[in-house]
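Escalation from tier 1.

The customer reports that the assembly of two entities below gives different structure tokens on two consecutive runs. Tier 1 could not reproduce it. I'm attaching the input and our single run for tier 2 to review.
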Amino acid sequence: MSEHIDITLTVNGERVTARVEARRHLVDFLRLDLGLMGTHVGCEHGVCGACTLRVDGEIVRGCLVLAASLDGATVQTIEGASDTGEIRDLQDAFIARNAAQCGFCTPGMLMAAADLLAHTPSPSREAIREHLSGNYCRCTGYQAIVDAVETAARTRAKA
Amino acid sequence: MAETVKLHAEDRPNSYIGRSVPRPNVAKLVEGRGQYVDDIVLPRMAHAAFVRSPHAHARILKVDASAALALPGVYRVFTGADLAGHCEPWVAVLAHLKGMKSAPQLPLPVGTATWMGEAVVAVVAETRAIAEDAAALVAVDYEPLVPVVDMETALDAAMPVIHPELGDNLTFQRVNESGDVEAAFSAAHTVVEATFHTARHTGVTLEPRSILADYNRGSGRLTVYQSTQAPHMLQGVYAKHLRMAEGDIRVICGDVGGSFGIKVHVYPDEVAVVAIAKLMGRPVKFIADRLESFSSDIHARDHRITGRLAVDGEGRILGFDIDDLTGIGPYSVYPRTSAVEGNQVVNLVGGPYDFAHYRARTTVVLQNKTPTCQYRAVGHPIATTVTEGLMDLAAEALGLDPLVIRERNLMRDGSYPRTSPAGMRFEGLSHEASLARLRDMIDYPRLRAEQAALRAKGIHRGIGFAAFIELTNPSPFMYGIGGARISAQDGCTVRIDPDGSVVAATGVTEQGQGTEAIMRQIVAEAVGVPIETVRVVTGDTLTTPYGGGTWACRGAGIGGEAALQAGLAVKEAALKVAGAMLQAAPESLDLVNGVIVEKASGAERMPLAELGRVVYFRGDTLPPDVPRELMQTRHFTPKQFPFAFTNGIQASHVEVDVATGIVKLLKHWVVEDCGRVINPLLVDEQVRGGVVQGLGGALYEHCHYSPDGQLLVGTMADYLVPMAAEMPDIEVGHVETPTKESLLGAKGAGEAGTAGAPAAVMNAINDALRPFKARVLAQPFTPERILAALGVVPPR
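Tier 1 run:
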């Protein structure tokens, strides 16, 4: 457990060099080593989706990725996706529709929703529900989230 | 009684009550920039991990921590005995629950572990990972004891008594009886009877229980950052049990990642963390992991209920006769007690209906499983399941339509105030209007025609209904009269700052339901300022008025009224100053949208910021006797009724695949009456979230145990929760019957969805199964149970 690995990667557009414990998963690396608290820990089994974020452009469960495997990788968290403005429309739709209550699932939910819209610009409600089914939300009952994603998709289609 | 505020006066400026205003605190959450307890990092912060009992019931013989202490980075290890001298044990009973008994409980047990997952030893280290490594190195010698697992046999003479000093495993029993049940049943045209099971399940807050306690030896002050619903209650608990002055303790509750009742209780491991922080004189953090959450968060709803319903030939209810049994784990949970759920069942069965004869018994027993306690809609889903399940059985027996039998029996809308046979006092409900509204929403004839047409094609759909009542705005009759220091009153302080902006500090808390949003709406309207200029402070015992926090649907109804009154008082105070500045009678002025205006003409006289400037920086220019009290505090407690009941009705539309037993949820409808709706968007989302939580309990969620008391669900892969794909769209309608106890008129809205959803879906499934003469009454309604009811697979 005490083996350490040197990695250099890009996190939210900035280069990071670190020596990490071999067992450190990506969420702990982001939260404990980099102070990026937007990615949340819900189950650490890859089930709840709270730690959904991007590695090399694809969404992953941060709790199932070891930081040591990320030398040379590009990581983007909710903070990074917020700062680039890329998901502003989704975030605005979530606020307007009250698609976030306690907010703990929201960063992961937004990353999953952004991924859906990147691959399927005009998803049906069923497709939205299916794509978000790896992200647990205890508060909303999901309908507001589906509505918000649908609204953002429609607005993008018109733009 | 006071007149309530004008409804939906949206044409007026700064009229915010009744409007769908977005929540101010969501903007940071969607950027991942909230601050939950685990996001807080303090200098010299240590991390706690717990060694938990692998046995349901075992004597703790010996703890050997030498290997753990040898690990670099480990600071201290604490056993039950190490902490016992630093903490007063607690006993979770309430005086008004007559005869209730429970055993003293400590942060970590001394002598005997009584459930699998109970924290036995605490390890404190430099990091959580090291603390967990060290916890695995702690050697605990146990002598396994026979566990009491099945609540049905918990009182048998052959079973061990979990706490010998109590004499037996019975913690509470109550019979709630009125009228003449025996006579009613013997005179009945038809009696239906059934046994229902509601499954033991749990809250699964996505943010686990989280606490960070910091003790400053220099100041003698303790600061606890905690994910909780009741900061002031915890302040009192820590003071009493750690032998400190309440004034030396500050509990801070920032963003909370879901609570639902899970985070309103006193957990022994959390008290251990606070005691350890005090002993070590440094910050100590504990964040439960998911396995710890499943085995140590409170469970709920572990009930077996046998019920009988007597009706006359027209389907009019003569009486209910209910026998409820519930197992609550080895201890009643502090300070609310674990008897309240059963007590609610015997108070709420038959709640929506007009009848005369009632008998309901609850028997609350101890067992070696995770303790149970209050979870969203406490007791309501159980009472509603029994009531509405029996109503459908009676309808079927008499050949009546399920909506018709309900219409025939609901309490009449004009018949209030009145008291139910169970002794519940209702100020004003709207069952008939709600059912009529539901009929409009669902297009019932079309649903029934479609059902009949699809039957012919081998597609089996069902429609189920559940009328319900919900207890909200609890007065001291809920806990205070039983001796618990749980505040039923709440307060709000509103102040105007020099720039004319407004700050409102409230004793109710925010866990995502929208407390800050509705307080902002209420205060903006009451003071007369633009909503963007109002900031709301919650969740800090040092800076907010003393209050109960957020539970039992009290935030809007109680905290909201305090905010309204404080806002109105501040406005009055501001107009006094304005009158002096403008040489006008205060009564002739008004404060609208942040501007002092002439009330009659609406002519603008002065911005509020100018008044602020004069009051705070040039008080010398005002007449000396003019009061400049731009900060006002008001409190509110319900006094006329013990609770403000709400009501409503739900409908569920399902399709049951009779080959696989899988239930597809097609649609769900809710009509609810929570009195004044402050923010329709937020109320509807409370209802929807509540419905889905109820559907989870009805269809998926179950804390499975082995016969020897091993919890068999340890991850979210074992314990199924509702996900987006399975859930239906939910349509929400409203009837508004404001409470006359307050100017605001609001009642609670957070639990109605959960109260009715399980019964509605049960009735819908059984409606679909009716041609097969099959029926399911044990939650969760899994495919296996449905197939067993259909005779496809053998029952287990």
